[in-house]
Amino acid sequence: MHTDTDYAGLTAREVAQRVSAGHTNAVRDPSSRSAAQILRANVFTVFNALLAAAVLVVLLVGSWRDAVFGLVLVINTATGTLAEIKAKRKLDSLAVLATPLAHVVRDGTEQDVPVADVVLDELLQLRSGDQVPADGFVLQSTGLEIDEAILTGESVTVTKQVGDRVMSGTTVMAGTALVQIDAVGAQAYAHRLAAEARKFTKVHSELQAATNRVLTWIGYVIVPMTLILLWSQLRLSDAASWQAALVLAVAGVVGMVPQGLVLLTSVNFAGASLALARKQVLVQELPAVEVLARVDMLCLDKTGTITSGGVQLEEIRPTAGCSAPDEARARAALVTLVSAGDANATATAVASALADVPALAASHTVPFSSARKWAALVAADSPHRAYVFGAPEIVLATTDNQAAEDGAAAAALRDVAQLSRQGSRVLVVASAGDAAPLQDAAPQLPTDLRPELLVVLSEEVRDDAAQTLSYFRDQGVAVKVISGDNPVTVAAIAAKVGLRDAAGRAPVGVDARTLPPADEAEGQALADALAQATVLGRVTPEQKRDFVRALQARGHTVAMTGDGVNDALALKNADLGIAMGNGAAATKAVARLVLLDGRFSSLPRVVAEGRRVMANMERVAALFLAKTTYAALLAVAVAVAGVAYPFLPRQLTIVGVLTIGLPAFILALAPARRRYRSGFLRRVLRLAVPAGLLIGTSVLAAYFWLSSRGVAEKELTTGTTLVLIGGGLILLAQTARPWVWWRVLLVAAMAAVALLCVLIPAWRAFFLLTWPSGATWLLCAACWLVLAGTLEVLRRRA
To answer: For the domain that residue 579 is a member of, what is the CATH number?
Structure first.
């Protein structure tokens, strides 16, 4: 596209000079961690430091065999780091597909370049839906309206005239403009505010919050517990055996640290993001995966979700009483109106049908906006004559003759209602003899509008929409369609794809203009009205946001999908904003998920992935925290009783690997479709703490019973180790339900490896174990039977 020669923009040489000087818009995205940052985050943790110190102590005063838990630590950390880096690389490569483009003028030609490639002094074309990539001032403006919420905190559009400044991070809501850039990169407004252009409230991760809370508790307890255990073991030793006492104290500390819990959380998020990336779903914030499992309310914008976004022009019909000359002039005005704005699907369909119709010259235009729902022009050859194109019930709402049964407006609205019930989308072209209200700073509709043309459009319904809506209905997720279009039309289309209201009936469209406001006094009334509505039409961008907040106030976890700039406010405020890959740049910027291929049918897979993460993390978190509980109980018990700690670090390492480490990683990757319920930490602790106490008590009972019989030290250690492994495997079997074949095989394989540890001589020697006597086997069996019964009762109550 060529532009006015007065605004030819920079030459290729001038662009290259600015790039060499570093005057570009490229700024490192702080939300994307580098590989080095991921490595540091996985390696340099408090518990890793504690365990590394423990490894060092054991290597200095004990056997290298007791430092084998350090190898497990290295393997776990490496696994987590590699998984996150792999996910990061995939997401980064996918993010390129979602990178917004800037429309710049170079060498007299408009070009699309990544926003990072915009340079100082660049000429920039702005259109509706664009997010301003850098600071500048307006050279030309055609009804440019900017949402400056990033500056003021209020989503109020501001009209920009020639000479006015536009700031990076703001959003174009209507109109077009040519802007010259005078601040880029770190000097631009949005970057000075730490990338406020993409700012949205961080996802609240119940999983991360619960994990951090537990780790804080453990952090408070583990230091005094370590000192108490160290004191008790040193008190039992003499000057010649203090090294052995130190190793036993280390064993107690190692047992209390939930080594893989944080690691598994980050690996799970990264793995889910990678799995979704393979399905063309870009996760822009990893904890958003968790929110997927909690969603119980899905709000859909009709366009791009239920419908494909494609529009077909069915007909342009004159209204009753419209003369042939008036029809011809209205068609010419329509050509101008659809050509002046953005080339959206509606404008393209109408312009194609009227390709042979000459445009009507205009002296003034008002661009379309989602808030107004109309566009207008003032004829150049008749300064008092105006034409308006938009939603019939809004454009004709102020006409003087609407109340009259024989009025043209009333007749047109009756035709619109009939067409809307058939699922058609109808727009009106109306004329007015008083153009003055349109030329005010805040344009208003004239009151003498007369309908001239009805523009009848149809939209293509997605083939997969019905199946996708059926999935959400079966999963207990309520669905609401929130659209800016006619509510009757939207309801008819929603009914075609099987959407039903709470009573199972075809939905009735509700006009959002009839709903109570969202202020504090009426907020409850709005929430009540939304509870009864399934399809809402004529919704403004601000109302979409208010609807999301009202649903959240009722305790719903809300996901919102959309593709247009009018959806950005709602997506930003939703618990989970989901943008379509072909959506507006501003919308994708605030979304937490982007469906790059724009497929509505991807959403069930997205929800299933979130549920898998949460359900499996709940399983494995119970295993980790049960281990911490019984390790703490053992440490306290031996300190109070004044006896030696019953395990060496190498023995606790094999216990952890067989009952938690390997099974946890395998279980965390398993499919799980159960809908997530809030209360993650409460449920985990209700199972983990009592289970840990029961297992610890069984180990202590076996320890003291074997000690009272005077068995050899290896027999004593072997018996208590087997009781501990058996208790851990029983808990593993309980949390691994339902028992499908591979889960049964997993538990059996871990039990078989434990048996080999006392069966193979070399393994026995390494772990300082022995083949138990018959009496010890009977004791172990008795402990396992008691644990199996009590843990089953506990699981059912939890």
So the answer is: 3.40.50.1000
Cα–Cα distance for residue pair 576/620, rounded to 1 Å: 25
Do residue 718 and residue 767 come from a single domain? Answer: yes
- Given 460, 484, 505, the domain boundary residue is 460
Q: At what angle do helices 261-277 and 603-641 cross, to 10 degrees?
A: 170
Distance CA 497, CA 252 (A): 60
Neighbours of 755 (CB within 10 A): 12
CB 611 within 8 A of CB 672: yes
Contact, 82 vs 104, CB < 8 A?
A: no
pLDDT digits (tens, 9 = 90+) for 165-204: 998 878 888 888 999 999 988 787 766 554 433 444 456 6
pLDDT band at 241 (very low <50, low <70, confident <90, very high): low
CATH of residue 410's domain is 3.40.1110.10
Instruction: Please name the amino acid found at residue 508.
Output: V
Range of the domain at 547: 281-306+462-598
- Give the separation between CA 3 and CA 8, rounded to whole angstroms: 7
456 and 466 in a common domain: no
Distance CA 290, CA 676 (A): 9
The DSSP-derived string for 326-395 is HHHHHHHHHHHHHHHS---HHHHHHHHHTTTSPPPPEEEEE---TTT-EEEEEETT-TT-EEEEE-HHHH
Out of 232-246, 327-341, 589-603, the most confident range is 327-341
Closest CA to 432 of 405, 404, 456, 396: 396
Q: What are the pLDDT digits (tens) for 197-237?
A: 344 445 667 777 787 788 788 778 877 877 887 787 777 76
Q: Is 381 among the domain residues?
A: yes
In a domain, 605, yes or no: no
Is 135 labeled as catalytic in the residue annotation? no
Q: What's this model's pTM, rounded to 2 decimal places?
A: 0.73
Query: What is the domain-level CATH number for residue 9?
Result: 2.70.150.10
pLDDT at position 449 over 80: yes
The count of domains in the chain is: 4
**Domain edge (last residue) among 442, 460, 478:** 460
Cα atoms in the 13 Å half-sphere on the side-chain side of 161: 2
In terms of average pLDDT, the best of 19-28, 326-335, 465-474, 484-493 is 326-335
Q: Residue 494: left if φ>0, alpha if ψ -120 to 50, beta else—which one?
A: alpha
CATH code of the domain in which 701 resides: 1.20.1110.10
Cα dihedral 708/710/712/714 (nearest 10): 0
CB-count exposure of residue 487 (10 Å: 0-12, 13-18, 19+): buried
Q: Is residue 161 part of a domain?
A: yes
One of 66, 130, 296, 301 is an active-site residue; which one?
301
Give yes or no: residues 285 and 400 share one domain.
Answer: no
Output the CA angle 571-577-578, nearest 5 degrees. Answer: 115
Shared domain check, 492 and 450: no
Res 702: pLDDT: 95
Q: Which residues are 458's β-sheet partners? A: 312
Residues 6+ positions from 671 with CB-CB distance below 8 Å: 608, 612
Q: What does the alpha-carbon distance between residue 297 and residue 560 come to, in Å, rounded to a whole number? A: 9
